[in-house]
């Protein structure tokens, strides 16, 4: 890195000489920065850039530098002054080359990105943070990632939550709500099937297996065209066998499913079968 002599004044010479003797020691750089504490950002950035070049693994130096650069743009609109904000994004990327195991750097970078409304970029950095950090630190990233996913919604929100519940299946019901809000009925039904087949799953909302089963049936019945690859009839019949005291409601769900699909002959057979419960199933009027 070339040194711009115009940025070095007479009062700086003693600090520069000390750095020539000890360029890889932190304290001389800190003393030099303290000496220049009231100087413009470009003069201090000149020192910081040289410091992080010689001490690229210094957590303290990078934190000081990043904070100072962020303070410089905090009153600037990220859309209007995109290039200035991008410069700081680049600084974060450089810091993470050696400090990728430091959760605080990732968190500050992510918070900075969220202010810029860069959805795709932010999602990629969130994913990189999860890959780089140990599992014990993931909860800190998820505290930012999940609200981001909900605000982004759509495909982004769906993918983020799908990844989250792999390790946090207890949050499956919230994931299902997100899917239903975005009309991902097939994935919602599959998630219900997964938790109903998991003997260890316990509803955080206190719902019984029967209630979850009925919610699954409701999705299947009202969105049959979305259930490609799911044997809805088998699911409902399994529920009839499993919840013998609730057969009436489940038979009604099955009949409604047939009606929705236009399979009226099955409904007629159902109504005329004397061994089934007596239920009045409304037929479509021609």
Q: What's this entry about, in short?
A:
67% of the residues lie in helices and 0% in strands. The protein has 286 residues and is mostly helical.
Write the layout of secondary structure elements.
Layout: H1 13-21, H2 26-35, H3 41-54, H4 59-73, H5 82-99, H6 103-114, H7 119-132, H8 138-152, H9 154-167, H10 172-181, H11 185-196, H12 209-222, H13 232-242, H14 247-261, H15 264-272
Helix pairs in contact: 1-2, 2-3, 3-4, 4-5, 5-6, 6-7, 6-8, 7-8, 8-9, 9-10, 10-11, 11-12, 12-13, 12-14, 13-14, 14-15
Helical coverage, percent range: 55-70%
Mind telling me the C-alpha Rg? 30 Å
What is the N-to-C order of secondary-structure elements (H for helix, E for strand)?
HHHHHHHHHHHHHHH
Q: State the total count of DSSP E strands.
A: 0
Average of the residue pLDDT scores: 87
Q: Quote the distance from N terminus to C terminus.
A: 83 Å
Strand content bin: under 5%
Structural class: mainly alpha
| Coarse shape | elongated
- Quaternary structure type: single chain
Low-confidence stretches: 274-286
List the total number of helices: 15
Major beta-sheet overview:
none
Would you write up a description of this structure?
- With 286 residues, this protein is mostly helical.
- 67% of the residues lie in helices and 0% in strands.
- The chain has 15 helices and no strands.
- α5 runs antiparallel to α6.
- It is elongated.
- The C terminus is likely disordered.
- One of its GO terms (biological process) is generation of catalytic spliceosome for first transesterification step.
- It is found in: Nucleus.
- Pfam families: HAT_Syf1_CNRKL1_N, HAT_Syf1_M.
- This is Pre-mRNA-splicing factor syf1.
- Keywords: mRNA processing, mRNA splicing, Nucleus, Repeat, Spliceosome.
């Amino acid at each position: 890195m070339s040194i711009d002599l115009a940025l070095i004044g007479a009062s700086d010479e003693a600090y520069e000489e000390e750095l020539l003797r000890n360029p890889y020691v932190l304290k001389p750089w800190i003393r030099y920065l303290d000496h220049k504490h009231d100087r413009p950002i470009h003069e201090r950035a000149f020192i910081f850039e040289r410091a992080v070049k010689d001490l690229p693994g210094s957590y303290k130096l990078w934190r000081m530098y990043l904070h100072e650069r962020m303070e410089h743009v905090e009153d600037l609109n990220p859309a209007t002054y995109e290039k200035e904000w991008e410069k700081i994004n680049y600084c974060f990327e450089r810091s993470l080359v050696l400090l990728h195991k430091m959760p605080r750097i990732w968190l500050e970078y992510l918070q900075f990105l969220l202010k810029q409304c860069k959805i795709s970029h932010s999602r990629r950095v969130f994913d990189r943070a999860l890959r780089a950090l140990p599992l014990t630190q993931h909860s800190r990233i998820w505290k930012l990632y999940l609200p981001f996913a909900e605000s982004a919604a759509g495909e982004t929100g769906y993918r983020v939550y799908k990844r989250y519940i792999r390790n946090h299946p207890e949050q499956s019901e919230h994931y299902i709500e997100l899917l239903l809000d975005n009309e991902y009925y097939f994935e919602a039904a599959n998630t219900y099937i997964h938790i109903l087949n998991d003997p260890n799953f316990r509803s955080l909302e206190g719902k019984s297996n029967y209630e979850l089963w009925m919610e699954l049936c409701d999705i299947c019945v009202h969105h049959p065209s979305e259930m490609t690859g799911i044997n809805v009839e088998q699911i409902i019949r399994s529920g009839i066998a499993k919840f013998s005291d609730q057969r009436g409601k489940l038979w009604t769900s099955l009949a409604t499913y047939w009606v929705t699909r236009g399979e009226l002959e099955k409904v007629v057979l159902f109504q005329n079968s004397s061994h089934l419960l007596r239920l009045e199933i409304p037929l479509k009027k021609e």
